[in-house]
Backbone:
């Protein structure tokens, strides 16, 4: 279980998170929704160790991982698909995937994982030798997810995976997220603007607003919550 | 801007009065401080003008000393060779003016008093130096525009070295022997006058819709072009204006020092100016001015320190307490570059955003939404 | 206390030379002070560093004149730096004595400017004459360090005098101080088959030039100027320095007790043998102290007059007299390197 | 015929001069490739490498008088080889540690800052190293004692190639291949390349950025040390300022070849070396720097990312 | 109808890859047209060709009959085409206000000398530009951020600021590359209204690339569909929605 308690994070003088609590049960899909600047990405960054936590605690299976260096967080099995994709533009597609598997030793397993990633995103296989910087936006998003899978995480945090993705593929990606969760047993923390889809596939959801959790519940309950419907589901 | 202009006006007036009261007596008693002040003025011109290129337009130029050299040698040889010929042609005993004035003997006493003539000579020479340097700026600017970052840096560095090598081979300019400039016309008024003009031009350009173009080139060339901004033109203008003022600084230096050597304009001189710009905080004119002053004064402070007994005394004290034998630490001070470099490192580590520059600091890459 | 300002390049690219120079000057003044100073006062040598930067020497001269109120200025090391300070000293009527600036123009600045070394043309002429008369070499090449005014100055006169005396300059090659690879020039040079190679440059480059020339198989003898004089020339060039000649102020094998004491004292103090720069600055500083003593006053104008009438000052670089152009006139020696030692070949009186 | 030989000789001279630039440029390019900043202190690490080698050699001379050996033969091979290896390794380790410490102290705190900021500290470090060295060992040139007997290689007719030159050329090529392999074929090389564009993303892949950067500096500095010693063997006069000029030239070489590109550094170094030599050997010796830079500028204008640099079309 | 923008059989290749081939498009005055297609279909590349960032390998582009090939991006903007970027490219060190004012540079009547002399003409124009910039910001409700550094804006606002900036160049043709990306459904709804509003108010044509079908279908009158650089369909939204090729390649189901 990944547990964030009373987390407070600031960018200089601007406090971005005011004491938030988030629990991600093992094996579940948990989603964070909220409008722009709510603090969703900030939460993920803090968990990954990219930001200094001002106060509060982050625990992984009872172990305190607050302010741990990012590479050590990854070593413990938490991988992030960051906002803005952050693929390595000067490396080829394969090399990007290799970077994903950076901490892994077992070559046989890694090999079969390439195949797995390519089976999810066949486009990547077509572009295998292309320099990633010249990929289209959507292709880059696929690469970012594929790269994260290569690290064989226990916990996968996805920051807006549907951003800039064609509708057909959005559905695919969400299906794959569920698949990854079910088949590989990877726990997922999903940040999404597309709240509809996110709540559809997740078990539990948090609604963030200006750095605070204003609502949390089972996903099916959130989907019928009037506040959520009005503000995040476009009133649909 | 208007308040700044008032301050500027008062400042210039002050300088002008100062120029009128005559600075020779002042200079002879405090010649050393006078020298430092003049050098501050010259360095301010150099740093502020380089800041237009490096700080505001985001082009990394390492050849400012080259433009300064062009200005210095052009202005110097103007005063030494060209101008006397011209003056002779106009006002010499067989000159045009004499010929014209011949029928009017009563006009002849109204020749220029020397003070006026000196100042005039300085302006003309300085404009000449500035213009030639600007021309060099154009020559470097246009072809270099295809280049970015470190590639541009190397080309500008190369340009500076080429200028230096050429001067080393032109006998007319004295080659390695150096060139004497007899007219030491430079004074406080013109040095700070030109510094003020440089500051005014750079700030005036940048603080306008027109000049915002420089900043957009720095931030994002692709977006700037997409907003209809001719990035090429802006870069060339930055180079030309920067070079012009470097040239004027060169001329002021030439007419102050009275002696020029190619080695005075080597790569390390360019680096000195770059250090001022970065320490000042790129794109912050106030910071850059302060940095120019600070970096001119600092070596002198270290020089003064080397003459005190402080260090040997401290050493004796230390050796008294701990039984070790250190090499004479006074040498640490005598070689001022040791302390200077240390201070440089410390300043950068403690104030990486520059003395004042909020810009350089805020321009650091953030992993936030901007990169989405 | 009597203040003398000394300015040289203690840091920066020319520090190799500047450090030596100041060591020499310091030693001279310390010796004078140890003997009770002059006029009953000790001398305070105010040392300042120009960082090998243009413009700094002028500032230091202004500081000497307006802040420290020195009675005389010693320096600078290079001609170009001295040219910055000379007009200021002249204007202020404070004598300036440079122990090493060899360009003719320096002492032409005015009657307060002196030098205690040879001028470039003089050195050039001695080198040329030696090659013709002693080596009977009429086909020569010159290697010039274009970055050093010293090198340019010497080679100009050297070339024209050599031609005048019937020699033929096959080609002039150039390099820049700081270079370590001279094979391009030396390969071309070798193909010209010269009878003598002139290298009017500093020992830093000359040593490497000798090495590389011999390695490439250049057989002709090399002739240099006083810029060669340094223990490190022999230690770097090793055997390849054998049989080369250079003009010098003095020869360390000079049995003259004055020289021997100096060399010994210098070694004890600094751990290395002195080079020409140390010796010249040692003499320069000594000469100034002597002039003050003879002037019997610390008035700059009187010191100037005393300097102008210097006759046979016994320096380690020879007996120095000051001529009417305020240049030093002193004997020059031509030395050769044999078995790792410097040997005198010829002595030319002024 | 003599003209042809002279030309070949000049070409060889140029290649050996160029190899020196290339050797130093390799370290430059290596650090640049990862951190995207010009490590101005590299030339000074090179200088300190030479001084470290100088010190070790002097110690070795107490036990083995290497200058007694006039040639490499069956008897002398082992002592010469062993001693040279000791000197090399010692200096390389010294510089590797030095390089890592410089990075730790002076560059790391500024890692999130614009690159130009770090450039200034690098200049500061460079000045500091030069002048401290001068303070401790003096400004006078020191004679680097002989390690390998330097003599002309036989059997080349009228052409002269010295053993030291050959050593430089061979080392340059070997080191280039070695570095290229590290960067392109190993995991840490991959991490270096990834780090160069996005350190944050790199750490999210589980890479210990600090370690990779330290490694890069260690490697680059060890290379500089090797270069320092090789050059000192060839022209055995070392001074505290010896890193300045080659440092700039190597920087130029690295940019000419396409900065960050390892074979590019070598190509750039060789081009500059040959160019300088030819200009000097034929015709316009005084204009050497001007012409070298002039050609450099023309090449860059024609190919704005250097000879081997990849033309990176920015995807908008 | 005389087309405002006409793309005539444009092809562009990157090395071996043909990113867009034989692309034809014509957009009339005051038209709101969509360009959709799977990721990597070549939509952004089409934008880049039109705006001169890339030169087409083959084919020609016209704006009201003027040929645009070979022109620099800023020339093309001067002719009346403005764009936003898929990856936000604001001027990071400038404030919101200055970002917009910078884009007025194009229509500036004064030059560097006026900027230095600061005469009345200069002052008048500066004031005028300031007022116009504020008007634009008000339309987008960004005026409250006037002096905020643009990189500190929330993401959605940055996207909208890009549109403001593009409008400041006074275009006749506006190209929007995924303006709704990263917005939630409510914000997207507001953006749709806004796009329609500015299209009318400024009397311009808009070419819109967007992956959110609600947005595209909601406001575009005509849609082009690209797949692998080839146009697979063109027509009004209703047709496109039902086109089996489009469903198969892009929409799904
Ligand atoms: N690097 C930064 N520097 C300063 N403030 C920042 C930085 N990154 C984010 N912020 C601020 O912190 C707050 C939370 O931002 P965060 O990126 O976590 O939001 P988000 O919920 O992920 O929104 P979005 O949907 O835009 O991604 C916002 O007010 C934002 O402006
Ligand atoms: N500079 C370039 N060099 C090489 N290939 C490129 C370049 N620019 C684009 N491409 C390729 O062209 C194809 C089209 O890319 P483009 O960015 O136009 O796609 P897109 O339709 O905008 O996709 P998305 O919806 O994901 O943004 C992609 O396969 C991309 O990899
Ligand atoms: Mg976010
Ligand atoms: Mg796109």
Residues:
């Amino acid at each position: 279980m990944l547990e964030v308690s009373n987390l407070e994070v600031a960018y200089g003088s601007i406090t971005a998170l005011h004491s938030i609590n988030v629990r991600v049960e093992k094996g579940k899909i948990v989603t964070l929704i909220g409008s722009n600047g709510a603090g969703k990405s900030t939460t993920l960054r803090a968990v990954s160790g990219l930001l200094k936590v001002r106060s509060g605690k982050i625990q992984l299976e009872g172990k305190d991982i607050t302010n741990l260096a990012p590479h050590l967080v990854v070593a413990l099995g938490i991988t992030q698909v960051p906002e803005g994709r952050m693929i390595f533009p000067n490396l080829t597609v394969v090399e990007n995937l290799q970077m994903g598997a950076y901490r892994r030793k077992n070559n046989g397993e890694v090999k079969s994982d390439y195949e797995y990633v390519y089976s999810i995103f066949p486009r990547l296989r077509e572009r295998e030798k292309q320099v990633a910087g010249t990929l289209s936006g959507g292709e880059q998003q696929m690469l970012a997810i594929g790269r994260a899978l290569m690290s064989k995480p226990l916990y996968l945090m996805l920051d807006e995976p549907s951003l800039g993705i064609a509708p057909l593929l959005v559905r695919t990606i969400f299906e794959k997220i569920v698949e990854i969760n079910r088949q590989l047993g990877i726990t997922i923390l999903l940040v999404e603007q597309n709240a509809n889809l996110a709540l559809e596939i997740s078990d539990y959801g948090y609604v963030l607003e200006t750095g605070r959790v204003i609502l949390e519940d089972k996903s099916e309950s959130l989907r019928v919550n009037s506040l959520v419907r009005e503000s995040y589901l476009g009133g649909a | 801007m208007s308040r700044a202009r008032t301050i500027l006006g008062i400042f210039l007036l002050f300088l002008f009065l100062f120029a009128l009261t005559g600075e020779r007596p002042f200079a002879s008693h405090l010649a050393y401080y006078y020298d430092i002040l003049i050098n501050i003025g010259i360095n301010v011109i150099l740093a502020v003008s380089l800041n237009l290129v490096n700080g505001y337009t985001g082009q990394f130029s390492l050849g400012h000393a080259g433009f300064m050299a062009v200005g210095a040698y052009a202005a110097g040889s103007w005063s030494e060779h060209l101008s006397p010929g011209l003056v002779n042609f106009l006002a010499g005993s067989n000159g045009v003016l004499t010929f014209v004035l011949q029928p009017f003997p009563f006009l002849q006493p109204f020749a220029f008093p020397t003070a006026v003539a000196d100042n005039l000579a300085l302006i003309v020479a300085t404009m000449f130096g500035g213009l030639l340097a600007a021309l060099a700026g154009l020559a470097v600017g246009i072809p270099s525009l295809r280049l970015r970052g470190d590639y541009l840096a190397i080309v500008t560095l190369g340009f500076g070295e080429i200028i230096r090598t050429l001067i080393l081979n032109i006998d007319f300019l004295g080659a390695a022997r150096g060139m004497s400039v007899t007219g030491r016309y430079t004074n406080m008024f013109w040095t700070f006058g030109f510094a003020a003009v440089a500051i005014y031009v750079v700030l005036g350009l940048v603080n306008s819709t027109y000049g915002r173009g420089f900043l957009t080139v720095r931030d994002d060339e692709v977006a700037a072009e997409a907003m209809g901004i001719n990035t090429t033109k802006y870069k060339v203008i930055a180079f030309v204006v920067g070079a012009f003022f470097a040239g004027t600084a060169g001329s002021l230096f030439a007419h102050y020092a009275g002696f020029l050597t190619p080695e005075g304009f080597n790569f390390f001189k360019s680096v000195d100016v770059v250090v001022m710009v970065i320490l000042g905080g790129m794109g912050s004119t106030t910071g850059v001015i302060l940095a120019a002053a600070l970096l001119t004064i600092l070596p002198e402070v270290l020089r003064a320190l080397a003459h005190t007994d402080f260090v040997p005394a401290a050493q004796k004290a230390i050796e008294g307490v701990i039984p070790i034998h250190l090499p004479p630490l006074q040498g640490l001070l005598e070689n001022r570059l040791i302390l200077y470099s240390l201070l440089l490192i410390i300043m950068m580590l403690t104030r990486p955003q520059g003395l004042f520059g909020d810009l350089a600091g805020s321009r650091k890459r953030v992993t936030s939404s901007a990169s989405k | 206390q009597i203040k003398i300002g000394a300015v040289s390049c203690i840091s920066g690219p020319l520090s190799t030379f500047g450090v030596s120079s100041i060591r020499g000057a310091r030693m001279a003044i310390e010796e004078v002070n140890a003997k009770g100073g002059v006029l009953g006062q000790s001398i305070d040598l105010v040392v300042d560093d120009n960082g090998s930067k243009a413009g700094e020497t002028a500032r230091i001269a202004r500081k000497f004149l307006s802040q420290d109120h020195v009675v005389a200025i010693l320096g600078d090391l290079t001609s170009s730096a001295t040219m910055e300070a000379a007009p200021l000293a002249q204007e202020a009527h404070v004598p300036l004595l440079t122990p090493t600036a060899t360009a003719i123009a320096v002492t032409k600045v005015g009657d307060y400017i002196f030098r205690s070394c040879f001028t470039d043309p003089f050195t050039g002429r001695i080198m040329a004459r030696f090659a013709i008369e002693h080596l009977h070499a009429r086909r020569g090449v010159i290697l010039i360090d274009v970055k050093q005014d010293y090198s340019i100055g010497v080679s100009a006169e050297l070339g024209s005098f050599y031609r005048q005396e019937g020699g033929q300059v096959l080609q002039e090659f150039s390099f820049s101080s700081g270079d370590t690879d001279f094979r391009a020039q030396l390969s071309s040079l070798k193909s010209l088959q010269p009878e003598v190679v002139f290298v009017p440059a500093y020992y830093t480059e000359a040593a490497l030039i000798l090495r590389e020339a011999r390695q490439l198989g250049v057989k002709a003898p090399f002739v240099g100027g006083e810029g060669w004089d340094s223990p490190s020339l022999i230690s770097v060039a090793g055997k390849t320095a054998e049989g080369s000649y250079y003009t010098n102020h003095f020869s360390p094998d000079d049995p003259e007790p004055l020289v021997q004491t100096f060399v010994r004292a210098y070694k004890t103090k600094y751990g290395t043998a002195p080079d020409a720069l140390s010796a010249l600055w040692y003499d320069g500083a000594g000469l100034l102290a002597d002039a003050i003593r003879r002037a019997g006053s610390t008035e700059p104008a009187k010191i100037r007059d005393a300097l102008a009438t210097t006759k046979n000052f016994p320096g380690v670089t020879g007996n120095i007299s000051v001529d009417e152009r305020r240049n030093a006139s002193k004997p020059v020696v031509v030395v050769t390197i044999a078995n790792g030692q410097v040997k005198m070949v010829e002595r030319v009186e002024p | 015929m003599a003209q042809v030989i002279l030309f070949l000789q000049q070409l060889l001279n140029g290649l050996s001069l160029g190899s020196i630039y290339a050797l130093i440029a390799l370290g430059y390019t290596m650090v640049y490739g990862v951190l995207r900043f010009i490590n101005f202190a590299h030339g000074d690490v090179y200088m300190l490498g030479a001084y470290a080698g100088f010190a070790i050699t002097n110690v070795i001379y107490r036990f083995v008088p290497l200058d007694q050996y006039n040639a490499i033969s069956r008897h002398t091979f082992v002592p010469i080889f062993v001693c040279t290896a000791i000197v090399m390794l010692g200096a390389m380790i010294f510089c590797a540690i030095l390089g890592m410490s410089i990075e730790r102290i002076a560059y790391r705190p500024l890692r999130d800052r614009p690159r130009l900021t770090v450039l200034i500290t690098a200049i500061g470090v460079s000045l500091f190293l030069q002048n401290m060295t001068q303070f401790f060992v003096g400004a006078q040139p020191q004679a680097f004692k002989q390690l390998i007997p330097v003599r002309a290689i036989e059997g080349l007719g009228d052409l002269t190639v010295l053993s030291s030159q050959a050593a430089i050329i061979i080392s340059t090529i070997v080191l280039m291949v070695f570095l290229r392999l590290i960067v392109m074929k190993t995991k840490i090389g991959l991490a270096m390349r990834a780090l160069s564009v996005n350190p944050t993303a790199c750490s999210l892949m589980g890479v210990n950025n600090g370690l990779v950067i330290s490694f890069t500096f260690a490697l680059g500095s060890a290379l500089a040390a090797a270069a320092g010693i090789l050059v000192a063997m060839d022209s055995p006069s070392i001074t505290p300022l010896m890193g300045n000029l080659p440092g700039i030239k190597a920087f130029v070489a690295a940019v000419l070849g396409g900065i960050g590109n390892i074979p590019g550094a070598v190509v750039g170094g060789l081009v500059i070396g040959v160019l300088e030599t030819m200009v000097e050997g034929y015709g316009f010796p005084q204009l050497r720097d001007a012409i070298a830079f002039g050609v450099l500028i023309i090449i860059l204008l024609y190919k704005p990312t250097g000879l081997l640099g990849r033309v990176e079309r920015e995807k908008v | 109808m005389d087309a405002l923008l006409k793309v005539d059989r444009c092809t562009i290749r990157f090395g071996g890859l043909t990113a867009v081939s034989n692309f034809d498009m014509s957009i009339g005055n005051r038209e709101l047209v969509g360009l959709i297609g799977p990721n990597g279909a070549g939509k952004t590349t089409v934008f880049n060709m039109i705006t001169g960032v890339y030169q087409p390998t083959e084919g020609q582009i016209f704006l009201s009959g003027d040929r645009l090939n070979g022109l620099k991006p800023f020339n093309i903007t001067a002719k009346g085409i403005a764009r936003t970027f898929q990856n936000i490219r604001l001027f990071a060190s400038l404030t919101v206000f200055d970002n917009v004012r910078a884009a007025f540079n194009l229509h500036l009547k004064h030059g560097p000398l006026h900027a230095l002399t600061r005469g009345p003409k200069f002052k008048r124009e500066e004031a005028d530009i300031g007022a116009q910039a504020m008007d634009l910001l008000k339309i987008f409700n960004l005026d409250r951020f006037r002096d905020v550094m643009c990189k500190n804006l929330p993401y959605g606002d940055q996207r909208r600021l890009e549109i403001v900036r593009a409008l400041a160049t006074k275009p006749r043709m506006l190209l929007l590359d995924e303006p709704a990306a990263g917005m939630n459904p409510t914000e997207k709804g507001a953006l749709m209204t806004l796009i329609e509003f500015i299209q009318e108010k400024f009397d311009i044509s808009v070419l819109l690339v967007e992956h959110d079908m609600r947005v595209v279908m909601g406001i575009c009158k005509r849609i082009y569909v690209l797949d692998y650089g080839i146009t697979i369909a063109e027509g009004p939204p209703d047709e496109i929605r039902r086109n089996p090729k489009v469903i198969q390649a892009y929409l799904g189901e």
